[in-house]
Amino acid sequence: MKAHLQQEYIKHYGKEASATYFSPGRVNLIGEHIDYNGGLVMPCAITFGSYLLVSPNNDQVFRFKSLNFSEQAEVPLQAEHKKIGEVWYNYPVGVITHFINDGKNLQGLDMLFYGDIPIGSGLSSSASIEVVTAFALNDLFNAGYSKLDLVKLSQSVENKFIGVNCGIMDQFAVAFGEKDKALMLNCDTLDYQAVDSNLGNYLLAIINTNKPRKLAESKYNERVQECQTALAALKQQLDINYLCDIDTETFEQHKHLITDATVQARAAHVVAENDRVKLAAKALSNNNLAEFGRLMYASHQSLRELYEVSGVELDTVVDYSKTNPNVAGARMTGAGFGGCAIALVKKEAFDTFSEEVTAYYSNKIGYAPSVYASLIGDGVGMLNEVMSGE
Q1: What's the CATH class of domain 2-198+377-388?
Q2: Which helix (H) or strand (E) holds 132?
Q3: Where do you find CATH 3.30.230.10 in the chain?
Q4: Are 24 and 49 in contact (CB under 8 A)?
Q5: Cα–Cα distance, 114 to 36 (Å, whole number)
Q6: Fewer beta carbons under 10 A from the terminal one: N or C of the chain?
Q7: What is the mean pLDDT of each run of 10 residues along the chain (390 residues)?
């Protein structure tokens, strides 16, 4: 891959790149719609991601080219840049602007990006681009940021420059990811634990439903509001800041305070899902993939019935997975209403799984999903360092 990208760089810029960086995408293994409820999530880095090849220039400009998109740009080295439409290079321009506004000393760069994350799949291609750009600039110009600083900086770019009100999980996972480890992350405190997650003879199948996700944002905001309503009701008797401050037992004792049945169902999912993350960490660290798979199925059922953020496409993938003896567990991952599902599939059975789930899904939905195989990979780094960790 690196040799191929270097050839592409020479073709575009007429010289070799002086450094190559890689930042992965991510999936959330379990812990969905928890991040805005002060609880635990369990993302991991995947083996797809964003590559960035760079070399300095003396022209005081940043040049952006991509092997994935036709748009390219030449941006002068100055303090004030604004988002331009919906073009891909808004992400690196946003990062550069943040560095400059922080008073960091930069110089011009010729930059070539390439990503093998399926675009729009919910696997965090935007966070991957932000973090790889921030990491590269920090490394090249000795900017002095810690890795956590880079995560917060990238989230700030997404929120303020791009205008998407995301949490911090995506940027955190692609920066701090470790091979064969899941990250149990407290979204409130940012404390995290790297959980041993050796999948043995299993791999992570990522199934992109290829459904356009038009509902996601409005329904997402609706769910946030419902959780706030539930929290306010529980606060009548409980001294808590978030729904995830209580466990299932405490919730059962106090759920009568939430008089709306729908709002009560939303809260029931959140509290139980937070408990499932703790159980999942235990199962993975004990190498109990059967138990972890059971928790994946339970998570999906809760998201389907109590939180109502799944949909026929995601359900079809999980329903098929339950019939396949080579699958330990499956669930939707991400905000829902389309996007991706994940499944734990035996390595030697992946090709058959891919063919069968594609046929089953196509027959029911009318078009095919895209199916990818991934392992749990490392977070952001220089490409040589990332590769040597494999």
Answers
A1: alpha beta
A2: helix 125-140
A3: 2-198+377-388
A4: yes
A5: 31
A6: C
A7: 93 97 97 93 96 97 97 89 93 97 96 88 87 98 98 95 86 97 94 96 96 70 94 98 97 98 98 98 97 98 97 97 98 91 98 98 97 96 64
Cα atoms found within 13 Å of the Cα of residue 269, Cβ hemisphere only: 27
pTM, to two decimals: 0.91
Q: Give the residue numbers marked as catalytic.
A: 170
- Cα angle 48, 333, 203 (rounded to 5 degrees) comes to 50
CA-wise closest residue to 177 among 279, 28, 347, 6: 28
Instruction: Say which CATH architecture domain 202-374 belongs to.
Output: 2-Layer Sandwich (3.30)
CATH 3.30.70.890 in the chain, residue ranges? 202-374
Q: Residue written as tokens 């990811």?
A: 177
Nearest residue to 185 via CA among 299, 280, 325, 302: 280
Taking the CA atoms of the chain, what radius of gyration do you get in angstroms?
A: 21
- 332: nearest Cα among 299, 373, 365: 299
**Residue list for the binding site:** 32-35, 66, 120-126, 158, 220
- Residue in 117, 307, 304, 280 with CA at minimum distance from that of residue 206: 117
